[in-house]
Design goal:
Length: about 425
């Protein structure tokens, strides 16, 4: 116990030393962290000064502050690594001491177990000797008892044989008496059985006679019942036949009514189909007539447009060249705005070329190019309307994109 107490005190002292070393290491790490913060603050101050000074002096100060901060960080890391190493070393030392202590305890326990085992072996040996002695004494006692029992058994066997012989003689006498009694009983039983058998024969004949009469009556009754049943079945068959005939008649009538209804339905369907066909033919005629009217109107409008275009071209040729083509409002080199691709947004550019069909090639200011652009997509730079708007007058036949869509439809200028 004293040794164990001394070991505990030493372990406590070592733990206290480890705690002190850990505290010192943490204090060193905290001091290093404070130094790092001070260095970081110095670096910030240096950066603030560098903003007011020349670029070279600022870079030097920053580099110096960074170096100091890096050095302090390295010191802090080294201190932390040292603290961790010391903690690991102390933990390994404590584990080794604990293992040594456990080993010593196991050796002590092993010695105690060996001593106890030895004492148990000695006690077992003494017990085995005592048991062997007791077994020898018990064997001698049992042998004496066995001899005594054998003598008693011999006497009892002889007595039993005498009793058995006597019992056999008594059994033979009883068997003889029983045999005589059995012969008397058998004779009386035979006589009684013969009388009983004769009585049973008479009773059997009476039963057979009654049974035969009952069978005759039962056959007659069954024949009457069979006849009645057959008559009932024939009557049921006749009723069923009449019912089937009635059902067949009703089915025929229902089938005839259904056929008449189907005929009426077919007639109604034929009438409806004829009405539908007549309506479709009427609608087709109306559609053809409407299409023909629209085509004629479009042809007339296109003819008017072509005539107006031809007149405008002739008028332009009569006036002489004016830089435009075919009465166009623009000429090559004009600065314009154009809706690229027919979109809603106008982009600045120049007329690169004017075509006889009142279309133009455009060079946009952003470098893009577009060919064969409609006159309606072009306007003067800074203008409010589409190109060529000044050349259109009220009543002119034109083609217009309805709602700004992609397709043109013929029409007239209602108001300019």
């Amino acid at each position: 116990a004293g040794v164990a107490g001394g070991g505990d005190e030493e372990a406590a002292a070592r733990r206290l030393q480890e705690e002190q070393r850990r505290t010192e290491a943490e204090a060193q790490a905290e001091a290093a962290r404070i130094k790092v913060e001070e260095a970081e603050a110095a670096r910030l101050v240096a950066l603030q000064k560098a903003a007011a000074e020349e670029a070279a002096a600022a870079e030097a100060a920053v580099a110096e502050a960074n170096a100091i901060a890096e050095a302090e960080k390295l010191k802090a890391q080294e201190a932390e690594e040292k603290r961790v190493a010391e903690e690991n070393k102390a933990r390994e030392q404590a584990e080794r001491e604990a293992l040594a202590k456990e080993k010593a305890q196991e050796e002590a326990w092993e010695a105690q177990r060996a001593a106890a085992k030895k004492a148990a072996a000695e006690k077992a040996e003494a017990a085995r000797a005592e048991a062997a002695k007791a077994e020898a004494e018990e064997a001698a006692r049992l042998e004496a008892e066995r001899a005594e029992q054998e003598a008693k058994l011999q006497e009892e066997k002889a007595e039993a044989e005498r009793k058995l012989q006597k019992a056999r003689e008594e059994e033979k006498r009883r068997e003889a008496e029983a045999k005589e009694k059995e012969e008397e009983v058998a004779a009386a039983a035979a006589a009684a059985a013969a009388a009983k058998l004769e009585q049973e024969r008479r009773e059997q004949k009476e039963r057979e006679s009654r049974l035969e009469q009952e069978m005759i009556e039962r056959r007659e009754r069954e024949e009457r019942e069979a006849e009645e049943k057959a008559e009932a079945e024939r009557e049921a068959a006749r009723r069923e036949a009449r019912e089937r005939e009635r059902q067949l008649q009703e089915e025929k009538e229902a089938e005839a009514e259904a056929e008449a209804e189907r005929q009426r339905t077919r007639e109604r369907e034929d009438a409806a189909a004829a009405a539908i066909r007549e309506k479709e033919e009427r609608m087709q005629r109306m559609a053809r007539e409407s299409a023909e009217k629209r085509a004629a109107q479009q042809q007339a409008e296109m003819a008017a447009i072509n005539a107006r275009r031809a007149a405008a071209a002739e008028e332009k040729e009569g006036d002489g060249p004016s830089g435009g083509v075919g009465g166009a409002a623009f000429k090559q080199g004009d600065v314009v705005e154009c809706r690229h691709g027919g979109g809603a947004q106008y982009y600045p550019g120049r007329i690169a070329r004017a075509h006889p069909n009142n279309t133009f090639d455009i060079d946009y200011d952003d470098g893009d190019k577009e060919r064969n652009v409609r006159q309606s997509y072009i306007r003067k730079l800074g203008g409010d309307g589409d190109g060529g708007g000044d050349s259109l007058r009220e009543g002119d036949s034109i083609e217009c994109r309805h709602g700004g869509g992609p397709h043109y439809f013929p029409g007239k200028i209602a108001r300019a």
